[in-house]
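User: Sequence in, structure out. Go.
Assistant: Echoing your sequence, followed by the structure tokens.
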Amino acid sequence: MNRNLISDKDLVHLYVSGDESAIAVLLTRHKSKIYTSIYLLVKDRYLAEDIFQDTFIKVINTLKTGKYNEEGKFLPWVMRIAHNLVIDHFRKEKRTPTITNSEGFDIFDTIGISEESAEDKLLRDQSHTELRTLIQKLPEEQKEVLIMRHYADLSFKEIADLTGVSINTALGRMRYALNNLRRMMQEREQSFKQYL
């Protein structure tokens, strides 16, 4: 039988039953989508390859120890593992990537921060650095949605699937993230004016 016609669920069963080649079929079937989603988040080919390998090591270990839960579909489960490894990487690095979407719009434009007056590039760069610092202060789930939406350019449906929440929850987290950023920026501006 053509292995490409076998469902993910059946391939998982074959692999768990000792058919080592079944994992290769799953890997080939989903490699492009998983790798691309990792690459969109980290924007580094070598790092994406490392995280992709770590993802499949985790998948294999989970399958071999019998901890795989049938309730979720295979691909969303693997995507969640990859996503968690990416988040872990950013936590370790303690940095926020440059946050742009596929059209090249920076998040700073998206949330309506207009610093495009006569200030020079230095001042604008400083504002961007300050905003990245503020983004780090957001609660994890808000920061996560903000990065996935504006940096990885994922849809709210994709974000909801990856984070295991409803689309409304993902939208709400985004709204809270933007509101919190605006509030923190206003507070920073107010405290700055006190010194003038």
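User: And one key feature?
Assistant: The chain is about 70% helix and 0% strand.
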